[in-house]
Design a protein that fits this description.
The chain is an alpha/beta fold. About 40% of the residues lie in helices and about 20% in strands. The protein has five helices and five strands, in the order βαβααβαβαβ. Helix 1 links the parallel strand 1 and strand 2.
Length: about 140
């Protein structure tokens, strides 16, 4: 039985994840499950790159990502859906944050998009492939 669904998207690629969002929403509605939509921002904190940013940069980036998350969800699914969905912004490596969030939320299903892969990632993009390989729950991959 599916009670909780996690759907990671990349808010910087607004239209690319529309079908992924619609699929996750339909599955949540069908199963009566809660739906968490997440995006991940990079962590510049401890790297050499981090010294070039203000200390408040991460907070601004997270706020901007959360605003974009709301906009993408509202544009794709509508206001009513946006109010029912939990919005999550992670920091760090995308696949690590997806797996960590899924484990913490006791997610039953991850719905993730398989974007146009490079030749080296022929079957799945690098984040989707890692999530599929290392997830402790079922993963539904939405192809373009």
């Amino acid at each position: 039985m599916i009670k909780s669904i996690l759907c990671p998207i990349d808010v910087s690629e607004r239209d690319e994840d529309n079908e992924v969002l619609r699929t996750a929403w339909k599955l949540a509605e069908f199963h009566g499950a809660s739906l968490d939509i997440m995006t991940v921002v990079p962590d510049y904190g401890m790297s050499v790159v981090g010294q070039f940013f203000e200390k408040s940069h991460h907070d601004k980036m997270t706020t901007h990502a959360r605003d974009l998350l709301h906009k993408v969800i509202t544009a794709t699914l509508g206001d009513v859906a946006d109010r029912k969905i939990r919005h999550i912004v992670g920091t760090g490596s995308a696949y690590e944050q997806i797996l960590k969030t899924a484990a913490n939320a006791k997610t039953d299903l991850i719905v993730i998009g398989a974007h146009k892969p490079d030749f080296k990632d022929y079957l799945l993009g690098p984040n989707a492939a890692r999530v599929v390989r290392h997830s402790n729950c079922s993963v539904y991959v939405v192809r373009p």
